[in-house]
Amino acid sequence: MFFSRTLLASPQRWGLLFTLVLLRVTAVVAQTITSITPSFGIPGAVVTVTGTNLANVTGLSFNGVPTTGITRISSTSLTAYVPVNATSGPLKVTSPSGSGTSNASFAVGPARADVTVAVTPAGPLSACGGPTLTAIASTKPFKLAGSGVGGYPHVVALQPDGKILVGGYFDTFNGVARGGVLRLNADGSLDPTFAPTGSGLNYDVDAMVLQPDGKVLVGGR
């Protein structure tokens, strides 16, 4: 809160001096960050920051590294690009009236080039790294519906039956929990029978091998 005081003196009458004191109070509204969606990403990815009093935000930094790609959506939401050289840590918004820092940390993954794979006995398969995964098969239509992978797919492996194993840095597929590895049916839908127990992997899956006995080996960091 900022305070200012004004003193007004009236003419002296009958030996008395009357003084009027005006107190002016200016409220300073600080910003807050309540959530970051998604909570992880690589440089260049877009994140949504939710909080309060974000309409006048002029700056956003990722663990001290500022970004220039800010789009203010409303007083409670904005989007921004993860800047190059960003590191994992809290986000901080700044404005002429103050600043606010997130309690939660944003995890920054390593930047990587797109991955392209073309191996399939059933038809051409095209898989791209980054936030999207697209595949086309000559025998059955392949279509990903819904929000897809909640993160970044890095590697794929095709099974003899046409099902597709996907590994990467993600925690959901169409809202269903899948930690780092999942399997799609030949039509692009999530295979519910392939659901590793527990919370899954906590880090990137960078390599995946399908053994002759059907077991899957994954590696990462």
Strand and helix map with partners:
Elements lengths: L1 E8 L9 E8 L5 E6 L2 E2 L4 E7 L6 E4 L2 E3 L2 E5 L2 E5 L7 E7 L2 E11 L7 E2 L9 E2 L20 E10 L5 E10 L2 E2 L3 E4 L20 E6 L5 E5 L1
Parallel strand pairs: 4-11
Antiparallel strand pairs: 1-2, 3-5, 5-9, 6-7, 6-10, 8-9, 10-11, 12-13, 14-15, 15-16, 15-17, 18-19
Annotation keywords:
mainly beta; Immunoglobulin-like; 221 residues; 5-stranded mixed sheet; disordered N terminus; elongated
Quick gist of this model?
By secondary structure, this protein is mainly β. Helix content is 0%, strand content 48%.
Summarize the structure in words.
The protein is an all-beta fold and 221 residues long. It has two domains: 32-108, Immunoglobulin-like (Sandwich); 116-220. 0% of the residues lie in helices and 48% in strands. The chain has no helices and 19 strands. The chain has strands at residues 2-9, 19-26, 32-37, 40-41, 46-52, 59-62, 65-67, 70-74, 77-81, 89-95, 98-108, 116-117, 127-128, 149-158, 164-173, 176-177, 181-184, 205-210, 216-220. The strands form six sheets. Strands 4-11-10-6-7 form a five-stranded mixed sheet, with no helix packed on it. Strands 3-5-9-8 form a four-stranded antiparallel sheet, with no helix packed on it. A hairpin with a 5-residue loop joins strand 14 and strand 15 (164-173). The chain is elongated. The two termini are 48 Å apart. The model is unreliable at 1-9 and 115-132 (pLDDT under 50).
